[in-house]
Amino acid sequence: MVVRLSLKQRYAIILCFTIAGGIIVYQLTRHPPEVRRMSHMEGLRVNSSQFTLEGEPFRILGGSIHYFRVPRAYWEDRLLKMKACGLNTLTTYVPWNLHEPERGVFNFQGQLDLEAYLGIAAKLGLWVLLRPGPYICAEWDLGGLPSWLLRDENMRLRTTYPGFTEAVNSFFDQLITRVVPYQYSKGGPIIGIQVENEYGSYAKDTEYMPFIKEVLLSRGITELLLTSDNQEGLKLGGVKGVLETINFQKLNPEGIKYLDAIQPQKPKMVMEYWSGWFDLWGDLHHVFNAEDMVAVVTQILRMDMSINLYMFHGGTNFGFMNGAFAIGTPAPKAMITSYDYDAPLSEAGDYTTKYHLLRNLFSRFCVEPLPELPSVQERRAYQPVVILQHLSLWDSLHFTDKPFKSERPVNMENLPVNNNNGQSYGYTLYETTITSGGILNSRNHIRDRALGERTLRLLVENCGRVNYGKLLDEQRKGLVGDIELNHRPLRNFMIRSVDMKPSFVNRLQSSGHWRSIRHQPSFPGFFQAKLYVDGPPRDTFIKLPGWSKGVVFVNGQNLGRYWSIGPQQTLYLPAPWLQKGTNKLMVFEEQEADGEIQFASSPDYGMTVDVQ
Length: 612
Fold this sequence. Notes:
CATH architecture of the largest domain: Alpha-Beta Barrel
Shape: globular
CATH class of the largest domain: Alpha Beta
């Protein structure tokens, strides 16, 4: 007897719990694998103008939420809110640079536990489209590629250059092994895998996309493969046997017509329907009118297309992970810390007008009533805290790794630190002796910003590497060439990596070198305060009026950069990163500081401008 379950029953979930090393591990399936084998139930297919799943017509109503931009404690909350909006599919990128911070050193734990994230999606009855890269764009530093690739002076990213393909193969050996068990054919939620990302806008190597396709297939990927490009990229970004999808914000009839022409009688999908837009330091906060957005989504659905909202929930570029934008600007401009994106679910997980309008729209396409709306997280505007201690950057240097002596400047990525993987993020301090004043000429060799003094000290910040376009290979940071004084190149540098990794922050906070705020602080410097939480911690936002530019750490967590030029004027501080009782706040400030740190119950993203 053959047992067959309908698509309507796909949310039936079997939980099998085992204990492994003290951690609860679960396997989640919508249909028992043995039932699928008996009935030969199919995953996502494209054999007609409609997708089919389990042999029945299926429309992807998707949304993007990146696990690496959301505190792990809130993963389930955000996915429940996605499901309550009427979406049936989660999409997420995979950031190679976080998962392999040093060559051959892999991290899939804690905040980077992709398998746990996929497990939550399965538990909640969400399908998954996985976008593993290796390049992801995502307004993320170097588009998700690890900076140690740039130690090779001949590196050609996103090509079949052996130095790149060898690194991709090594990473995908680790990544795909973890992904394969979560495929539909194995009883998991993954119904589709994207081959790279928007390669048509880069397109430097005709053999590259076939290489990535084979990398996936040879490691056990069996689900539907897709690509994703804007209209222009469709001409060069495809690969044989892989479904192409399109990206846009305003309705693009010509792009849809072209997609139909190159893939007749195939399902059409907007893989990235841009629900808002990203922001750059020094610009305005971009917003996209809710009614205008929903009107386009409605038209897409009326055309019988599938859709993925990019982003459904943007989250935050915590730490130093923001990218930079280099199209139509004289020089790259860094992305801000917030990745709110004016998305339907806000940076802190709040419902917006877009959310409610979309929920009303998607409810018409759901067979059963939508779940009740999950409650929102409580907020609290804590009382301001006073700065208690300070420590100059110069006094903190003995907490960094041993300095490196070099006759010539060495760029950040090629420093002999982090097990010879170079420095990826943060600041680098270059020191040399000068005997006279004069005209200093950087020859455009400072990437990105520098502060200087006599006994010449140049503190150079990586503000974020370009994440999109044809400049990826040029994203080395620090001093990338000679600095001239009176037309003569400076020599004999002492170079220190001030990457502000957790080990450095912990050493610094526990040191006995801090000085009372009664002493005049010097800049750049570190400033400490304490926040006492007298009940359950609540989400909040940090405000720093009177401060200039720097980084905020709370209990060792790097919340990201702040900068008075805006547009962003607050930093999101999630409740799970606070604790009941005393919390340590540390600010690294480059130029000027106020005497206190303030808090707010709502964000301030600055003056707005409509997305053009």
